[in-house]
Amino acid sequence: MIITSYFPPEIGAASNRIYHLAQGLKEDYDVSVVTPLPNYPTGKIFKDYRGKASYKTEENGIKINRLWLYASVSKNKFLRLFAMLSYSFSLIWFFIWNKIPDKVIVQSPPLLVSFTCVCFLRSKKRKLILNVSDLWPSAGLELGALKENFSYKILKKLEAFNYKKANLILGQSNEILAHVKNITNKPELFLYRNFPEIEIPKLTERKSHNGNIKIVYAGLLGVAQGIHRLCRELDYESIEFHIYGSGAEEEAIKKLISSQNKAPLYFHGKVTRDELHKVLLDYDLTIIPLLNRIYGSVPSKIFEYAKLGLPMLYFGGGEGESIIEENKLGWVAKEGDYGHLNKVLKTITPEHLNADLKTAIQNTAIVQFDFKKQLEALKKVL
C-alpha cells in the first residue's frame, strides 16, 4: 500500500513520482494507493470528484482509494492545518475499516499525515517505509513559510518521531539521507531518485529563430520556484522566455506580461504531461530555478528533461548543481544571483544548443537515470 497526499490526475513531481512507483511495483506486488480526492494545486476538489465522501477505482491494475479532505491552499495557517487534519482523520477511519498490507510506503511530507500513518500502522509484522521527498520543517524555514517558534519545535519532534519509527527510509537526495542519519541510525536508508519512466523521443535539429534562444520553464508557479521574479530579472536581449504551468503566482505573471508589451515573454497555461513532453522539444534550453536554495531538494525535472534531451540552466544551488555538472547536462548559475544568471545566459549561443549536445544529454540519462534499474534495486530492500 502506498499512502500519499498527491496522485494523478493532480500535476507535479510528487504525483508523477508516486504514480511511476506504483506502476513499477505492481509487477511484483498487489498494489493499492490511498490518497485524497484530487485538489492540488488549486485547493479545490476537481470537478469529477465533488460531492463525494470517498471514491474507489481500479486503474491500470492498481486499486485507488480516494478519501475526503477539506481542500485548501489558503495562507491562513489554521485553515491549512485543518486541511491536513481532515485527511489524517479520513486515514484513521480508513485504517479502522480496511485490511492493511504488511508493507506500507508513506509519502512525507506532509509531516502530520505521515505522523498519523506511523502512529497507527506501526507493527512488528508490518514493514513501514517512509518516502522522504523534502526535509520539512527545515525547508519551510528556508522558504520563509515557517518561523523558528514553538510550532516549529513541535514539527521537528514529529519529523524525528517519523524517522525513528520507520523500518526503511527512501530519500530523493544524499542530503536527505545525511539529515536522517544525523537524527537516527535505526532505519535502513536507500537513495531513491525521482527518475521518470517516459517514452524517449527521437531528437531532430531545431533552427533558432532570429538568433534568439527559446527558453522554457514548465511546472508549478509557486513561491519556491520564484518565476514571477525571474520574469522581471531576465535580460531579454538575446532570448525569449516561455512559461507552462499553474500555481499561486500565475495571475501575477499574467499581469506582468500584459504590462510589458515589448518583452518576449509568453505564458501558455497548463497542459497535460504528454502534451508537455512534445512541446518541450521545440525549445533550445530549459531553466530550473529555486527562489532560495532548499537543503535536500533535487528537482525531478532534471531527470525528466535529460531523457528528453533538453539542455538545462540550473539556478537553485545544492545537490542539483552537482548532478548537472557531473553529468554535463547544461549550465549552472549561482543561486539567487540574477546578475550571474544573465552573465551565464550571454555565454550560451544557438551553436552550443545543437543536436550533438541534446543527444549526449539523452544518452547520459538513459544510462545514469534508469528507472527500471533503480526499481529493481529498491525491490531487494523492500
Low-pLDDT regions: none
Architecture per CATH nomenclature, i.e. the level-2 architecture of the largest domain: 3-Layer(aba) Sandwich
Q: What composes the largest sheet?
A: 8 strands, mixed
Reading the helices and strands in chain order gives EHEEEHEHEHHEHEEHEHEHEHEHEHHH
Across the major sheet, the strand order is 3-4-2-1-5-6-7-8
CATH topology of the largest domain: Rossmann fold
Number of strands: 14
Radius of gyration: 21 Å
Instruction: Please indicate the percent range of residues in DSSP E strands (runs of 2 or more).
Output: 15-25%
pLDDT averaged residue by residue:
92
Helices and strands in order:
Blueprint: E1 2-3, H1 13-25, E2 32-36, E3 54-59, E4 62-67, H2 77-97, E5 103-108, H3 111-121, E6 127-132, H4 138-143, H5 150-165, E7 168-171, H6 174-183, E8 188-191, E9 213-220, H7 227-233, E10 239-246, H8 250-259, E11 265-267, H9 273-279, E12 285-289, H10 301-307, E13 312-315, H11 319-326, E14 330-332, H12 338-347, H13 355-368, H14 371-379
Parallel strand pairs: 1-2, 1-5, 2-4, 5-6, 6-7, 7-8, 9-10, 9-12, 10-11, 12-13, 13-14
Antiparallel strand pairs: 3-4
